[in-house]
């Protein structure tokens, strides 16, 4: 059974890039604000709420001109605000609650925003699973390259790995990262990384392997230095791009739990 189309769906627009948005003037009309000036006060409250939630206001509230019909087929441009779904959610929370349509809107955008959050979370889970799997493969290849360079004993390889971490994490060794992320001794650092942090470590691993093989590096000390240099280069790139340093990124639920969930879904019989 199809869901009824709400007034908020009928005024939803899509830009050339395929991103959805709502015009504040259309929104004010649907909510029954006869005087747009009164609705502007609602938008300002929503902007403040957006800022307080540490979301970039400019990503959710974009000023623009909208052509509005003024009679006899004539049109003129009026200032409006193009709002994201999240912006609409904040606006509806700050609108006049005595209006019945506002109550409907609060339900609609609460549900839709939650659906979007779930979708984003599912995408992040899939990214983590894919990159963690790829990183396992490349760590094996990195270990082979390190062995060819003379890093043979398990203790020496642990030291070699630490040099890569120290380069990427601004001098922090694996034990330091463990402590900073609040992980237990039995938990592996890589299993608790989000996709962004995993990607940085994947790049570190692939480039370290390439450097060891390309430059035919031999000797434990030289291999350690090469790994640390690569990690530092990746860190510098993150800094230049304005990214968050990996040690500042939050610890995530173990990827092993996500893998177990994925295996369970595969075994689940189709209805």
Give a brief rundown of this model.
62% of the residues lie in helices and 10% in strands. With 271 residues, it is an alpha+beta fold. The radius of gyration is 26 Å and the shape is elongated.
Explain this structure.
By secondary structure, the protein is of the alpha+beta class. It folds into two domains: 7-96; 123-267, no CATH class. 62% of the residues lie in helices and 10% in strands. The protein has helices at residues 7-10, 24-31, 36-52, 57-60, 85-94, 100-148, 154-168, 174-180, 195-214, 220-240, 255-267; strands at residues 13-14, 20-23, 61-71, 74-83. A hairpin with a 2-residue loop joins strand 3 and strand 4 (74-83). The longest helix is centred in the middle third of the chain and has 49 residues, at 100-148. 27% of the residues are buried.
Question: What topology emerges from the helices and strands here?
Answer:
Elements: H1 7-10, E1 13-14, E2 20-23, H2 24-31, H3 36-52, H4 57-60, E3 61-71, E4 74-83, H5 85-94, H6 100-148, H7 154-168, H8 174-180, H9 195-214, H10 220-240, H11 255-267
Antiparallel strand pairs: 1-2, 2-4, 3-4
